[in-house]
Amino acid sequence: MSFLEAENMTGGYGAADILHGCTLKVEKGQIAVIVGPNGAGKSTAMKAVFGMLKLRGGHVKLDGEDITTLSPQERVRRGMGFVPQVNNVFPTMSVEENLEMGAFIRSDDFRGTMEQVYDLFPILKEKRHQNAGELSGGQRQQVAVGRALMTQPKLLMLDEPTAGVSPIVMDELFDRIIEVARTGISILMVEQNARQALEIADQGYVLVQGANKYTDTGAALMADPEVRRTFLGG
Amino acid sequence: MDFLNAIVAILNYVVVPATAYGAQLALGALGVTLIYGILRFSNFAHGDTMAFGTAMTILVTWGLQKLGLHFGPLPTALIALPFGIAITAALVLATDRAVYAYYRKVRAAPVILVMVSVGVMFVMNGVTRFVIGVDEIQFADGARFVISAKGFREATGLAEPLAIRTTQVLTVVLAALVVWALFWFLNKTRTGKSMRAFSDNEDLALLSGINPNHVVAVTWIIAAALATTAGVLYGLDKSFKAFNYFQLLLPIFASAIVGGLGNPLGAIAGGFIIAYSEVAVTYAWKKVATYAIPGFEAEGLMQLLSTEYKFAVSFAILIIVLLFKPTGLFKGKAV
Amino acid sequence: MSQHQPTAAKGGALRAPLFFLIMAGLIMIEGMTSGWNGALGILNMGLISAILALGVNMQWGYAGLFNTGVVGFIALGGLAPVLIAMPPTPGAFAAGGWQILIGLLIAVGSLVLTVWLNGRLKGKTRALGVIAVLVAGFFLYRAVFDPAVEAVQSINPSALGYLGGLGLPTLFAWPVGALLAAGAAWVIGKTALGLRSDYLAIATLGIGEIIVSVLRNEEWLARGVLNVNGIPRPWPVPYEIALQESPAFVERMAALGVDPVTGSTVLVKLLYTGLFVIVLALLLIAAQLALNSPWGRMMRAIRDNEISAAAMGKNVTRRHLQIFVIGSAVIGLAGAMMISLDGQMTPSSYNPLRYTFLIWVMVIVGGSGNNWGSVLGGVLIWYLWIKAEVWGPDLMSLITDQLADGAVKRHLVDSAAHMRLIVMGLVLILVLRFSPRGLLPER
Fold this sequence. Notes:
Chain C: InterPro entries: ABC_transp_permease, LivM-like. Chain C: Keywords: Cell membrane, Membrane, Transmembrane, Transmembrane helix. Chain C: This is Branched-chain amino acid ABC transporter permease. Chain C: It comes from Rhodobacter flavimaris. The structure holds 3 protein chains of 3 kinds. By secondary structure, chain A is of the alpha/beta class. Chain A has helices spanning 42-50, 72-77, 95-102, 111-120, 122-126, 137-149, 167-182, 194-200, 218-223, 225-231; strands spanning 4-11, 19-26, 31-35, 55-62, 65-66, 80-83, 155-159, 186-190, 203-208, 211-217. The longest helix of chain A is centred in the last third of the chain and has 16 residues, at 167-182. Chain B has a single domain, classed as Orthogonal Bundle (ABC transporter involved in vitamin B12 uptake, BtuC). Chain B has a two-stranded antiparallel ribbon with strand order 1-2. The model of chain B has no long low-confidence stretch (mean pLDDT 90). Chain C is mostly helical. Chain C is 75% helix and 0% strand. Chain C is globular. Residues 1-9 of chain C have low confidence and may be disordered. The A-B interface holds A 72-73, 76-77, 82, 84, 87-93, 97, 100-102, 104-105, 147, 151 and B 190, 193-194, 196-197, 200-201, 203-210.
């Protein structure tokens, strides 16, 4: 059984469904990547997993426990961490305060976790007293990921973490994400940069119109000529 | 000597009153800006919250005076202030529960909340008038002056007097304490930080498990404390009249916007900018000019604007800021 | 406001006529129990309130603009009858009137120059140039303006001391009142529209207070707190005294079996009613046509979704400015009508609670976005406002009947008048919460 099992998710924001029986699974300590054309429902699928969208069908299980009816806040307590695509930091608060806010639900000592985040993103330690809003795009993404890690999640969800950052910063971010996965945290990620993302993915999902079109390991999808031609630009 | 007289005149008629007034405006603007930052609407009832809090404090003051309790050279109202704050906090919390909570739940447009706050303003205004009447009330007691005009003249031998009232010193000291406490709270405590986080990015704050109801309640309590303190200090310094507090809305809003809505530091700076401009523009500079420029004979009062137009000063500054820097001098959150 | 339910409101097509019938009934009862003079008095101010509510409804109901300075636009409109209909003060223009106008021209000129320079210059020169022009303009203006004001105000200060008007018929003053208010609205709208919605509310709050304080303090303009009395009535309303002295009128009243004094006051009020009904009807027709025209549909589209309307290429700020100016013009018109009904200009009576927020209650209760609703709300709320003044103390006496006579009881009965504010606030809050579409919902 997978760590995250979101099966047959069907639903949308209004009357019309965006997801049509979409299924996503992530194994412990592995990286799963959702790719697909614009409007395929990638971010919506992610939000559905996180409970920001009411499902009309299907269910979400985390570590074998059914969490379909829980609110996002509840899911955070159960071990989910979510990094939104935009507006994912507190701009007028310092880096350190951002991390503290990430740990808001924790009543134990979180200084160790903060040190781990600083070890993972050394630049954040250097800028810990600077306001997050004054950082560069890549550094801000690091703050956002760091904030989500402060709850010590078992599943980290990233909505297009590399949107709007330069290729060099993107590579660095991906490296860090691999490092996070090595510590045993499962990762579910939506990416526009499909090729690079699939390279680091253990599992890949190609969504089209809210349904699974191809599901395989990242390497297998990269090797599939059909996927390459249609979604990876040759 | 004349030069010294000129400086004393400026101190006496501009600096001292403007500093006290600026501190009062700053406290008022802090309340407006906090509500704006957390609840995201301009609270038109803030002036009347100030009036209500002051009225409650006055009632308690009268009670204390009847009991024969006094605070030495300081006004008795200072002892009554915590009671006034508590009653006002209870009122705004009840108002939030009964009125505003619903609009947060349905995520109403800010302009609807502004309008609802106008309704609340009506009710608070009516309640205040009902409880304490519409007349002007003087409730300052204790020592009147820290430095009296006569004493200053005798001590220095200058022709110009310098009078500093107890209430003015009290205003500045108390305001400084309140501001220090507020910033300590916002920057150092977990709850304070969660309020800033909520103001910065509501969605992310919710994701981080910050309880919105808790944040909102704390915000209202702080706003009530700030409003009551500002109102009592203004009333001690001048006098209490319900309608004057409604009229304070404009300079208070102007202060908050000039500093950048949602930015507490900006609210303080804005309060002093507005207060100094208002006093300086409506002060008759004839005396100062006569002292400062030897042989100068002023024709008129050398007053830029008559005191009746003091609100025009806040308004003009407000318009200039809206025209050139709508987010305020200290970068607020609103455009 | 933006929650449009497709289903028709309860009562359907009969709802509006029913409410208007009830309203007419209330006025009739008032007339039969307390006399027609009083009833028509309430109706006349009610009709003016209806026009005011119509103007505010254009801004709020059509476009979602929150104007908290209604009192200022009413006062500005009220200035028009003084400037147009009062006889000119002899010698005032020679003494300093022209100089005052020149002074004002200098002030406006330096403001225009400032704006022009601000657009032309750059960097440091811009700041310096702008400040220099403003400071120089201000002192020049004061140098020209101040002595002229003094000269004008010293002409027979106990009776005149102001410029006076043009001596034209009062009816001309009504459109002029509209123009004055529209001009002020344009300036405010130009600055505050296009920013966050709260800013318009705050800016209009400011302009409202400033206009009123200008009227209170500028004695050369409209005598300030000394008030202007005896503003001529609009055609064709006669004076009661003239009627009572006319044998033909007295005879006709005698034939009807009516006391000529009562008859004259009622006739005067009826003529006002007629005039106001005509104006209201014209405005209502125009407003209905506009609301149902493509322009009105566009307005509502912008109100309901500014972002998508902007995406479709609509210039939202421009449309908002347009409707803000038009609505303010209607408010100014009503302000002018009100002054010609009262026959006097008393700046100290312009209280924001009474003239801004009460109008808001009228619009919200009537049904924002619905012109008929504003008319109903205007008359109904005005009626309740007047009656509450009477009912409040009565009710309080009834409540405190069992209380022992003493300070508490006296205080309660005395402050019952303030209950009106509480009631109006509660009405506003309750309607917004439980019936946001008002008595006559927008279709």
